[in-house]
Design a protein that fits this description.
By secondary structure, the chain is an alpha/beta fold. The chain has helices spanning 3-10, 51-64, 83-92, 104-107, 113-121, 140-153, 172-179, 196-199, 212-223; strands spanning 24-28, 69-73, 96-101, 123-129, 157-164, 185-192. Strands 1-2-3-4-5-6 form a six-stranded parallel beta sheet. α6 links the parallel β4 and β5 (157-164). The longest helix has 14 residues, at 51-64. It starts with a helix and ends in a 7-residue tail after the last helix.
């Protein structure tokens, strides 16, 4: 969303903090993945970092920023062989450890061993990237409910990473209502469909794809929410 469209509508000024004031770090442990999402940017799907490198990156990031949260990303981080060690190391630094995952291995773990091990190691929040652009999930809402039922038992803060595609604009209020019944529901990170390959082609029309301003208006009008934008 362009700043010149946001400011007149909502009088929101861009926040431009110094690097040391940014309170969040992201760490990519691996680029391997068991999904191929519709608009995925991942082209290096064989790359896996050595755990020593990951721990060094955590230390470097914490030296550069006053972070209170570190998010583990991929690829798909549940494929990373040393994930529990990484979570434990982040926890030892006194910051919140969260993870963004497609949830597939967790969903198909009847004993919930992986999830329990991660929580025991210090995982404080989990974010499930489940949406309508994933071929393995024909019914994303049912999948999310099954995942939320697992995290509810462990009292783990749980968020949803949802991509807004051009056939479901304005759906975010429905999604929020659907999952607010869970006591540990911790919000939605909404992304907009913007296929980079198409953006580079002649004739690309921005208006053919979801607009952050429209999603903001839907949330404001339906739920009286004023979400953060970036």
């Amino acid at each position: 969303m362009r700043i010149d469209l946001i400011v007149p509508q909502f009088r929101i000024k861009p926040w431009k903090p110094e690097l040391t004031r940014v309170s969040h770090l992201t760490i990519e442990t691996n680029m391997t993945c068991n999904f191929r999402c519709h608009t995925c940017y991942n082209r290096n799907r064989d790359y896996v970092k050595d755990v020593k490198q990951v721990l060094e990156e955590i230390d470097t990031g914490l030296r550069m920023r006053k972070a209170d949260t570190i998010t583990i990303l991929g690829g798909e981080p549940t494929l990373y062989p040393d994930l529990v060690q990484v979570v434990s190391y982040i926890k030892s630094k006194g910051v919140l450890c969260q993870m963004l995952t497609n949830g597939y291995l967790i969903l198909n773990d009847p004993e919930d061993k992986m999830l329990k091990d991660l929580v025991a190691a210090g995982l404080g929040r989990i974010m499930f990237h489940v949406d309508k652009g994933q071929d393995k999930y024909s019914d994303p809402l049912t999948v999310l409910h099954k995942l939320f039922e697992k995290t509810e038992k462990l009292k783990l803060l749980t968020s949803i990473s949802w991509t807004v595609y051009n056939n479901d604009q304005g759906y975010l209020p429905v999604l929020i209502r659907e999952f607010s019944k869970y006591s540990h529901f911790d919000g939605v990170l909404a992304l907009l469909e913007k296929p980079m390959d198409e953006c580079m082609k002649p004739g690309f029309r921005r208006e053919d794809y979801p607009n952050m301003l429209d999603e903001h208006i839907a949330l404001r009008n339906d739920l009286k929410l004023m979400p953060s934008l970036y």
